[in-house]
Amino acid sequence: MVTGTADVTHELAAFLRTRRERLDPRELGLPPRRQTRRTPGLRREEVAELAGISVDYVVRLEQARGLRPSADVVEALAGALRLTPDERAYLFGLARQHPRDAGGPATAAAPPLARLVEDLSPRPAMLMNHRFDVLAWNSAMARLFVDFGALPPGRRNAIWVCLVHPGMRERYVDRGSVVRDGVAHLRTAWAAHPEDRVLAALIAECATRDEEFARLWDARDVKLNGRGRKLLRHPDVGVIEVEFETLRPVQDPDQVLVVHRAADEDSQSALDRLCALDQVE
């Protein structure tokens, strides 16, 4: 029955029941039962055993008796019911919980996204994971900021390049604002992934090498800005103002696409000259 507002407790119950009833016990390697099954799929007892929770808890969930399962219980149920990634995300949403990262952050660009980054040329574009590691970039991005390919893999990180790379310290006209935003973005990422040791090491290094970073980190400002402007002082073509837009692919939510474009005609002319350097070389 479709209603005007969603009753998430009853929807959670119905979703669990339908997914339980769709499973074939034989495909899960469960022992055959002598007693004839009166309902299709798994029994509640079997789901409870597979998930490592009590039968009574499964019963109460399926009867919509006001329970709010923890993230651990939701993960266990998703595994027991063999949910697809989309179904798993839906179950976490119904339970009002946040899923934990299954395999850690992406360390390589998804091939379709890597191709998209290249196809966006001559607009500077790059692909990053949640810790701001740069996974893919096009030649325009390398020209505008830094050639990430010339950096060691462990240094291909947008925050490290912005705050620590010696060639970028004078690149930003308003470096103070860029640093403030970068630290606020980094703290937001850290709060969502406190178990990420690589991210923690990046934060510790930046705090050690930059007093301003350490001060701003202790201020605990947070920000998640998906669009904005940056004013750059480029050594080859002079001042360029760019607008940036950050997009998160549905299929690969751990990866974000950042696309830049000129903010005015003079900046577009400068970007055109910058991209033309690739053709000359």
TrEMBL record:
PROSITE patterns per record: HTH_CROC1
Stored InterPro entries: Cro/C1-type_HTH, Lambda_DNA-bd_dom_sf, MLTR_LBD
Molecular functions per Gene Ontology: DNA binding
HTH cro/C1-type domain sequence ranges: 41-88
Region entry Disordered, spans: 23-42
Pfam assignment, any one: HTH_31
Protein name stated in the entry: Helix-turn-helix domain-containing protein
